[in-house]
Amino acid sequence: MAQSFLTIQQVDKSFTRGSMTNEVLKDISLDVEQGEFISIIGHSGCGKSTLLNIVAGLTRATKGVVFLEGAVVDEPGPDRAVVFQNHSLLPWLTAYENVALAVDKVFARTKSKAERHDWTMRQIELVNMAHAKDRRPSEISGGMKQRIGIARALAMQPKVLLLDEPFGALDALTRTHLQDQVMQIQAELNNTVLMITHDVDEAVLLSDRIVMMTNGPSARIGEILEVPLERPRKRLELVSDRNYIAARAEVLKFLYERHRFVEAA
Amino acid sequence: MTQTAAASSNVTPLKTQGPQTTAHVVALPKAQPKSALLSPRLKARGVELAQNLIPPLLTIAALLLLWEMLCSSPGSSLPAPSTVVSDTWELIANPFYDNGGNDKGLGWQLYASLKRVALGYTLAAVFGIALGALVGGSTWAMRGLDPVFQVLRTIPPLAWLPLSLAAFRDGEPSAIFVIFITAIWPVIINTAVGIRNIPQDYKNVAQVLRLNAWEYFHKIMLPAAAPYIFTGLRIGIGLSWLAIVAAEMLIGGVGIGFFIWDAWNSSRISDIILALVYVGAVGFVLDRIVALIAVAVTRGTANA
What we know:
The complex is a heterodimer of chains A (265) and B (304). Chain A is an alpha/beta fold. Chain A has a domain at 1-73 and 161-166 and 192-265: Rossmann fold. In chain A, 36% of the residues lie in helices and 24% in strands. In chain A, the strands form two sheets. In chain A, strands 6-7-8-3-9-10 form a six-stranded mixed beta sheet, with helices on both faces. In chain A, strand 1 (6-17) and strand 2 form a beta hairpin. In chain A, helix 2 packs across helix 3 (113-126) and helix 2 (95-106) packs parallel to helix 4. The longest helix of chain A is centred in the last third of the chain and has 18 residues, at 172-189. Chain A is globular and about 55 Å long. In chain B, helix 6 (106-137) runs antiparallel to helix 7 (139-152). Chain B contains 13 helices and no strands. Chain B has a single domain (86-298), classed as MetI-like (MetI-like fold, Orthogonal Bundle), CATH 1.10.3720. Chain B has helices at 2-11, 18-31, 40-71, 81-87, 89-93, 106-137, 139-152, 160-168, 171-196, 200-208, 213-251, 256-265, 269-297. Chain B is mainly α and 304 residues long. The chains are: A alpha/beta (265), B mainly alpha (304). Chain A binds chain B through residues 56-58, 75-78, 80-82, 84, 86, 88, 90-92, 101-102, 105-106, 128, 136, 156, 177, and chain B through 1, 3-4, 199, 201-202, 204-205, 207-211, 215, 219-220, 223-224, 226, 298-301. Chain B: Pfam families: BPD_transp_1. Chain B: InterPro entries: MetI-like (IPR000515), MetI-like_sf (IPR035906), NtrB (IPR005889).
């Protein structure tokens, strides 16, 4: 069997509390090629974050396996760096120190001290945060925090970059700006990215494929949509692009016609 | 970044040229200090200082005045503040005299008490943080130890004194033990709470980075729990200082506690009042010291 770069194979996940078993994910299978940008979209509570956490190794699948380059994923590691929704920066460290913590750990043996410093600075410059490198998370805006979160994840040189609703908590202008920046970085470094989102435009703009999930409990992959748009993509030009509009309509139909959000689900 | 800069330059082209305008401003203050007596910043700080200092000073003055009026009659059982100062002037003026035995200045008495507190409190801090980390980090340690701690911590400090006197057969280690046993509970409990409350986010970060146990302890656990730990340490230092006065009254020797008891036995009421003022002042300073260390160590995440 020809293995993909990242393979999610028949993953089930259920949480058991006492005698209650709550099945969150059912039979999820997905193959991701190197350099692909995949978005996972679905209504809240459909288990998208659980799926991301399984790939990250932070949560164990009840059944099924995740392979990365042929090796089974069973614990968290820097090869699957996560950008958390709420940035998860350590508040007692400066922006620089937050990134350096990752760099110093991941490259403790392979890079010298000076090289690690240069590497840390390069990541911070990549997200345009050099001017605020000595500030603490409490002293910078939400968008800046998320940029440092992205720099920290990129600094680990992950095989797969996992983004858990990275722009969800940001205002629209900042979000737009960061999406462009992520697109640019991805074009530059050709990362493999798995992104959770509930924003249709974001999914269409950034992804090569959009994985649409049905509502929980027992959420499955409903459809996978290829986004046939050339890169580099320009936000403004896409607004009137036929393929863009079609893809957007497809996702919207899936989410709001066929799998409408059930109240109190 | 470049987009926002370009957008704003349309509206206010002058302000985006920051470096040049600030260069002029930087040059000016150097020429000015002689002409201006108080820079605006210094003045603002002076006003702030006055706002913080004047109200408590007024309160103290009012209390002293009230006290003076209440106690200035010849038949009053307690001395008025003016009497206290005149009675104890020798003690105030010579805090570090030493006539041998217990007849030492108040500076020495406080120093002896502080030495005991320093030792007992340091032990409590070290063991308290270690035990708290254990209880906070391990569910089984919590189940086993927490109920015991909850019972032990309700025992009043002085109730331990007879037992420790029996065990150590000496006043000095007994007093230190009382300080230790008084200060350790809030340290343990707050450390445990702090460690139990480490956000899952930080643990996830540690897991993704594959930090080992030691790295997790000193890079995530200690700094994340530091605000809680320092809350415990601050309560602990306050309790230590409360306990030492009581313990010293019973064990005797040099120390501010026994000084008070001794003064009572020889009816030197003014000496007692002076000692109380000193005890309060030292307690306040100890609390501030721990609070300032907290701010320095936690880099501002703890409250001063």
